[in-house]
Amino acid sequence: MAIFMILLYILLALIAYVVISFRKRSSYWKSQGITNEEPHPLLGNMVGLGKSKSFGDVWQEYYEKFKGSGPFLGFYFFHRPSAFLLDPALIKNVLIKDFNKFTDRGFFHNPKDDPLSGQLFLIDGNKWRRMRNKLSPTFTSGKMRFMFPIVTQICEEFVEVLAKAAEENPVVEMREMLARFTTDVIGSCAFGIECNSLKNPNAIFRVYGRKGLEEQRHGRLVMAFMNSFPELSKALKMKLFPEDVIQFFLRIVRETVEYREKNNVRRNDFMDMLIDLKNKKLIKSEHGDDLTNLTMEEITAQAHVFFNAGFETSSTTMGFALYELAQNQEMQD
């Protein structure tokens, strides 16, 4: 009975802490005299996210509603008070002139329990700055050029698969075809493996790559909690990505690195550059600072974000381009 009462008191204290924090945060901009829209009790100003709206949709609506009302206004990223910039000059200062003071993205990440969340686009502060310095030398035009032969080879395979598909059916679903193409390209460049998605739509890399993008580990309310209380969420060992997706990419990277190091294999791709950083062969940043080695988990996170950043964005852009060419056939000549 005593243990039950203790647990009950702890639960009540936790609930009280969350409620008080919610109320305090939701009145932050009002207490500062800054214009803002009344936040939703749970979702802040992110109402509709994931259900009918993307991040871009939410921010676009907020901008259209308040543009011209001042240089910036208050916004609640779930329950985290954030400044929503409106003035182009102020935006330029934040993104360029004063960027070193505004490096944090503000997204939840927990690399200790969810290694995939340790990617460059999610981490903050000095950890982000050190990781950026490590990765900057890998994205020079010269190093990117080394990957062209890999891309060319997959392009040739894509032409063959597309021609065969067109022979079987004059109507080809290009969105799926392009997604398989970009999966093979980025899977090969970032992870150094032959995904074979073009020939096999259900290839395992395609399955897990799609799952990592399309499936949410948590619902909107849990995500609101994680982004509003990141430190508490880390203490509770909460994660962003589905567990099987995390383990798949960790295994793929570990096996790839071990095989290359054991057999002295080099492909001049992104994975080679990450392995060099792991073994401290690239030890100077663009500013000449010494860099520490990458861990296997950090390699996995950066390879994963390379895949995420290039997979859907590239296939969607190519899909729109092909649609416009189909609608304006005179431009094909």
Automatic annotation (TrEMBL):
GO molecular function annotations of the record: heme binding; iron ion binding; monooxygenase activity; oxidoreductase activity, acting on paired donors, with incorporation or reduction of molecular oxygen
One family name in Pfam for this protein: p450
Record's subcellular location: Endoplasmic reticulum membrane; Microsome membrane
Chain segments annotated as transmembrane: 6-22
Record-level GO cellular component terms: endoplasmic reticulum membrane
InterPro entries for this protein: Cyt_P450, Cyt_P450_E_grp-II, Cyt_P450_sf, Insect_CytP450_Detox
Secretion signal span: none
Oxidoreductase found in the keyword field: yes
Cofactor: heme
Gene3D superfamilies (alphabetical): Cytochrome P450
Membrane topology: Peripheral membrane protein
Major place of residence: endoplasmic reticulum
Domain of life: Eukaryota
Keywords: Endoplasmic reticulum, Heme, Iron, Membrane, Metal-binding, Microsome, Monooxygenase, Oxidoreductase, Transmembrane, Transmembrane helix
Family: Belongs to the cytochrome P450 family.
Name this protein carries in UniProt: Cytochrome P450 CYP6A7
Species whose genome carries this gene: Musca domestica
